[in-house]
Amino acid sequence: MIEAENIIRQDSDWITIAFLIILVVLVVQKKLFGNRQLHTSIFFFKKNKLVSYFNKEKNTFFNLYQLLSFVIQLISLSLLFYFITPIFNVNTKTNDLDLFIKIAFGIGFYFLIRFLIGNIFSVIFNLEKLHKKIFFEKINYFNNLILWILPLLVLTSYSKYFENILLKITLIIFVVLIVIRYVLLIVNNKKLVFNNLFYFILYLCVLEIVPLVIILKLTI
């Protein structure tokens, strides 16, 4: 973990710029969409808000709000994975900014592949209704998750004495929230899920595992 502390401290100017971009996007998002951002941050507790936005936006997933949220997701996730690269013995001798950019491209590519596979799978097995609802909930729960993780990322990046413990806490909370996200997806869609249990399990496996396998095959 000492290496993790060192990598966070090295050449932090570009990290500051990354956080500034996130801040600007958050401000623009708040200015343009009012309470939408506030409601996003409480989706884990307010299912009715999530249902309400689904009814409004189900035919316009790729609106400006979701695009801005994706920018926040991409930068935040890239920073998180950049901070934890020493844990997985990734070669960090390369330029730190280059490593961050490579991680960002990898994450973006993963999301793209997952989206394409999800749509193809839903059409093949006639699960468009299930896919549309789960896809909407997944991206919005993930938006919620990122808003919670972001303050911890900032603290991890700029704390002088508690980088290690903050990084561990951030990673643990991230994993816990991911698990909660999947539990909520199943609970919210239990009728659809249990009516299509085999396809739902297959759907999740294909959606989460296949994109990772493709990326690993292309990069190793």
Write the layout of secondary structure elements.
Elements: H1 2-9, H2 13-33, H3 36-40, H4 47-57, H5 64-84, H6 96-124, H7 128-158, H8 163-188, H9 190-195, H10 197-219
Helix pairs in contact: 2-5, 5-6, 5-7, 6-7, 6-10, 7-8
Report on this model:
There is one protein chain. The protein is mainly α. The protein is 82% helix and 0% strand. Helix 2 (13-33) runs antiparallel to helix 5 (64-84) and helix 6 runs antiparallel to helix 10 (197-219). It is globular, with a radius of gyration of 18 Å. The mean pLDDT is 81.
As residue ranges, the low-confidence spans are none
**SSE string:** HHHHHHHHHH
Count of strand segments: 0
Span between N and C termini?
A: 25 Å
Helix content: over 70%
> Tell me about the biggest sheet?
none
Structural class computed from helices and strand pairing: mainly alpha
Give the rounded overall mean pLDDT.
81
Strand content: under 5%
Shape: globular
User: Compute the gyration radius: what is it?
Assistant: 18 Å
> What is the count of DSSP helices, taking H or I runs of 4+ residues?
10
Structural features:
single chain, 220 residues, mainly alpha, 82% helix, 0% strand, globular
Summarize the structure.
The protein has 220 residues and is an all-alpha fold. It has ten helices and no strands.
